[in-house]
Amino acid sequence: MGPIRIEPQKALDEALKLQQKLSAGAQTLRALDPVTFGVTPKEAVYRDDKVTLYRFKGDRAPTAKTPLLICYALVNTPYMVDLQDDRSMVKNLLALGQDVYLIDWGYPDGSDKYLTLDDYINGYLRRSVDFLRKSLGVDAINLLGICQGGAFSLCFSAIYPEKVRNLITMVTPVDFHTPDNMLSHWVRDLDVDLFVDTLGNVPADLMNYCYLTLKPLRLNQQKYVGLVDILDNKTELENFLRMEKWIFDSPDQAGEAFRQFIKDFYQGNKLLKGGLRIGDKAVDLKNVTAPVLNIFAEQDHLVPPAASRALKDVVGSGDYSQIAFKGGHIGIYVSSRAQREVPPAIHDWLAKRS
Amino acid sequence: MASNSAQDWMNQWQALAQRYWDGWKSHGVTPPGGFGKSDASAPWQAALDQWTQLFGQSAQQSDLVDRVSANAKSYVGLMQSLLNTAMGQDGGSSAAAWTEALRGGFNVPGMDPSLWNNPLGAGFRDLAGQGAKGFEQLMAEFGRGAAGPMRQELLANLGMPTFGLAREHQERWQQLGAALVEYQEQTNRYNTLILKASQQGFDRFQSKLAEREEPGRQLDSVRAVYDLWIDAAEEAYAEIALSDEFRKAYGAMVNAQMRVRSLVQGEVEQQTRQLGMPTRSELKGVEKSLQELRRHLKAEQESASADLSGEIAALRAEVAALKRELAGAKPAAAAKSAEPAAKPAATSKKTKR
After folding, report:
1. A147: annotated active-site residue
2. Which of B64, B98, B248, B339 would suit a FRET pair with B80, their CA atoms being 20 to 30 Å apart?
3. In 3D, which of B58, B16, B62, B48 has the Cα closest to residue A23?
């Protein structure tokens, strides 16, 4: 017996359905509203060059006494955490009573190509944290680092342990040399000095191209074949386009910061192995003494779970917890499951340590 | 398909094509030549071209339309190939026969023949948007120019010594030529691995299909076949992409491309300098100075702010001490004023302070 048994009627139905969807798409695609992201009201409370510190405004006043600062990666914009009304980690955290702040790193241009990790971590991030400590009259804040921003948050917490009350890391790489880390594998033989000296800032298109080639057929073909299924659904189509916009509306990478991140983190694996310095300050994860909640995604193709799990064995904190989320690198923010599970987990963990 | 003859299939296929096209005609689209006939080479793809034209050139979502169209073409190519295969079959085709049908589905008319049987390679070519294609187009032009006899001539000249006034320029051009050749070689090395991944994808697909031969596990839709193919292709690609060979080839290709870019930048800089125009190096120098100034300014501001904070804190401490002292002095003064003026000198001393 053969492996494929496509009944004639089913094949006809499938083809007709495709036709109907495309036909409907001819109408729907013309009627779409412009898509945006970042839906929760927010106020800029501090600016530093192109960096802006925002405070989100919920429907009610926060009950948490310690501010929660979200530190996102330099790649992509941070609004994955506030994509749309029904897919917003920020909105859910506010509803639970958290006082949520976020660092928007902005879009570096040519004049920013000499920004280093020292400028980002000991500069922008530290000054943002100090602003919050001073303006809110608290000694330490709660820090939530995401992906590369999680690596930054670990560095920050190791350098300035007195300024971090609780640390949450989400989909954060710690061991950059796990065997399933395709990105790391690819950049191991990269001459990053030549790369940055040639390109200056690393263009966002190049970064996105690289991410798409991690799963070339799934991300560049199957996804768009699947898109045909929703061509007759305006809402779903707008959700799809919103995600597309977020994926591809991304900032260039400041060259010098990129150079150091590739050399020290991806190639040298120094966050795990030791020897990492940010500016004139040594980073030793044993100095991270605040309680740590480490959340990672089991189907993450960008930051494999093993890369995040490694934190457990190297962090200095005596209060370490971890959550394995059933989903991917993006699903951990935008899936229905994420809305139900992630913000309450963060809130409950913080509440026990407030 | 087991219960249907090839003629039944042919009849239904014609009926399907007619119904399909009736739908398009309702949108005012003209049928492509040969559409609806079973011997038409790629009527579904042609229909998708027509669908794309419904949006015109200025459609807001034109890129999205292009992507849907390009990928739907690949999908319907697979659909057509499977259906064509099914027409003459009784449902008992082997995994190998279906895999051949899948290969056929990817090799659509009009496609670059170099990418036949290489869906991953085709995918990579489609992946880059127009904005990212500049360098690839430049290299394609070079590749055409440097192919065959000219390539041999290039290689022969690259090691020649240079003389006279233009020797430095000549040497740089030779370096650029060598870098271009190197880049082509490294790209070929990388493309060979991508082709290998495509071939292994077909092999893996065939293995996955074989697993579906047992009753109850058959695939019953084109989409299911397509999804299984994607799984197989991605698995094969991931295995290659995580190999040491790929890592070396990938790094070498990127490094070679950066050398070419760097040398081209150098040539542009030479020309602009001779024209008295600002160069990239000059701008980089300014940008570096700007960043150093920024750091210095922020450090100064923080230092000044820290000094000021320190001074304010010291003054506050002094004021607090004075307040405490004053608070302590008041009861004493009150007690003294309640007494007869026995010790005026002491009261006077406190007041002086």
Report:
1. yes
2. B64
3. B48
